[in-house]
């Protein structure tokens, strides 16, 4: 048993060594990161709980969060603690054929992420931002716009730079 454990540890160490020697191997396994913030699309977010839906004239959206974020919402505890993650999914808003004003999600347009890490992101309210289109991060200019809008009025500032409230 002891020898087996040792072999596992040795294999793990060798694997880590290989990945660091060959950047391609490491990169293929890790999702691409956003410019400025280095935020990635988190694993498993499609299974996360819904905070609220949202819509605009041409889009339908769903905002989900990890357990840390959901607990803060339920306890009405602001600011959100470090490791809170919020993900906004957006789709084109398609009119359901044959119905008068019923809309359904069409093609997905983007996935956006906010990660709380107050030490890493002190200049943007403790939040790191990422916008992904077809799984690829949007450009730097788009990432410069995130915090400016997420801090543009007192209402959102007083809610820790997060627009969405828990839909009960
Ligand atoms: C022009 C204003 C504006 C800009 C720019 C903007 N957002 Fe938002 N964001 C909003 C609004 C409004 C909501 C509320 C949900 C909704 O209706 O879309 C929101 C919601 C979110 C949410 C869900 C949490 C919350 O605050 O409600 C995430 C995650 C998010 N945005 C990420 C981003 C990222 C990443 C960027 C930059 C690439 C960005 N946003 C840029 C206005 C903006």
Contiguous uncertain segments of 5+ residues: 1-27
Question: What Rg do the Cα atoms give?
Answer: 20 Å
Number of helices in the DSSP assignment: 5
Report the end-to-end length measured between terminal Cα atoms: 52 Å
Number of structural domains: 2
Instruction: Report the CATH topology name of the largest domain.
Output: Chalcone isomerase
Structural class: alpha+beta
SSE order? HHEEHEEEEHH
CATH class type of the largest domain:
Alpha Beta
User: How much helix is in the residues?
Assistant: 25-40%
Largest sheet: 6 strands, antiparallel
Give the number of DSSP strands.
Answer: 6
CATH architecture type of the largest domain: 3-Layer(bba) Sandwich
For the residues shown, what is the average pLDDT?
A: 88
Name the bound molecules: heme C
SS strand fraction: 25-35%
Description:
This protein has 2 domains: 1-30, no CATH class; 32-157, Chalcone isomerase (3-Layer(bba) Sandwich), CATH 3.50.70.20. 30% of the residues lie in helices and 29% in strands. The protein is built from 5 helices and 6 strands; from the N terminus they run ααββαββββαα. It has helices at residues 2-21, 23-29, 67-74, 140-150, 154-157, and strands at residues 49-56, 59-65, 85-95, 103-116, 127-133, 136-137. Residues 1-27 have low confidence and may be disordered. Heme C binds next to β2, β3, β4, β5 and α4. Heme C (HEC) binds at residues 54, 61, 63, 86-88, 112-114, 129-131, 138, 142-143, 145-146, 149-150, 162-164.
Give the SSE layout:
Elements: H1 2-21, H2 23-29, E1 49-56, E2 59-65, H3 67-74, E3 85-95, E4 103-116, E5 127-133, E6 136-137, H4 140-150, H5 154-157
Antiparallel strand pairs: 1-2, 2-3, 3-4, 4-5, 5-6
Helix pairs in contact: 1-2
Bound molecules: heme C.
